[in-house]
Amino acid sequence: MRYIYVIIVLLAGVSGTFAQEKQYAIKDFYLYKNELGINVTNVIGNLLSLNPNTDDSPYGVTFRRHFGKYSFRSAFNFNVKNTRTQDFFQNNFIERKLNIFNADLRAGLEWHLVLSKRMMFSYGFDILANYGKEQSEILDFNFNGTTFINKINNIGVGTGPMVRLEFKLSDRIFFSSECSLYGFYSNSTQSLITNGVETDEPDKSTTNVDLKLPQTLFLNIAF
Fold first, then answer.
1. Residue 159 CB-density burial (10 A; 0-12 exposed, 13-18 middle, 19+ buried)
2. HEC states along the chain?
3. Which residue has the higher pLDDT, 143 or 119?
4. What is the phi/psi pair of residue 206, to 5°?
5. Structural domain spans, the chain
6. Considering the entire predicted model, what is its pTM?
7. Which pairs count as long-range contacts for 201-207, CB under 8 Å and 24+ apart, including other chains?
């Protein structure tokens, strides 16, 4: 979201107002060891009416543990969807079921550079994992009671560097955004079951390198 850049620039300007000649240490920036973050990009987008549905991060919640000059960082998100519909199509009664589960996990380390009393720059390295499972089922009551079940399983791993800019609003509240360059490999398997007879499709694998610019804003609470 483009307005993320505007917010970061404004925060940087505000931090300059508070900056003084003294050099601030990490212990002056992080007074608490733990930090829980929530992705608020779409919330702010809705409040400001700035096209909120362009959040480019798969992670909804983050957790960090500070150890002085470096921090452990992690993030996760999961999605569960179960639907069931019944309708008539060309005089046929059809029932459809869809079950989806998807989980993303990230963990890594980051090191810090204090820019001012309220601004922190961090750089680090992450390891990523993804697991997804989808099952769709169609039951055609008028076509000899035929049942079609399609199963898809996907698993992926990745890694890469990241940079982070964080603004300290108070000792317990922070705003942050990140930029990352991740390489990711995923493999998916698919099978089709027709009236109990299973047919496996060839496995599919993909490899990609993805540069993500700071389009996501996190609200972090220290404790």
1. middle
2. CCHHHHHHHHHHHHHHHHCCCCCCCHHHHCCCCEEEEEECHHHHHHHHCCCCCCCCCCCCEEEEEECCCEEEEEEEEEEEEEEEEEEEECCEEEEEEEEEEEEEEEEEEEEEEECCCCEEEEEEEEEEEEEEEEEEEEEECCCCCEEEEEEEEEEEEEEEEEEEEEEECCCCEEEEEEEEEEEEEEEEEEEEEECCEEEEEEEEEEEEEEEECCCCCEEEEEC
3. 119
4. -135, 145
5. 3-222
6. 0.78
7. 207/183
- Report the C-alpha gap between 128 and 142 in whole angstroms: 46
Quote the CA–CA distance of 176 and 120 in Å, as a whole number: 9
Q: Read off the pLDDT of residues 168-197 as tens digits, 9 standing for 90 and up.
A: 999 999 999 999 999 999 999 999 988 878
CA distance 106 to 220: 17
pLDDT band of residue 49 (cuts 50, 70, 90) is low
d(C-alpha 221, C-alpha 172), whole Å: 5
Residue type, 97: K
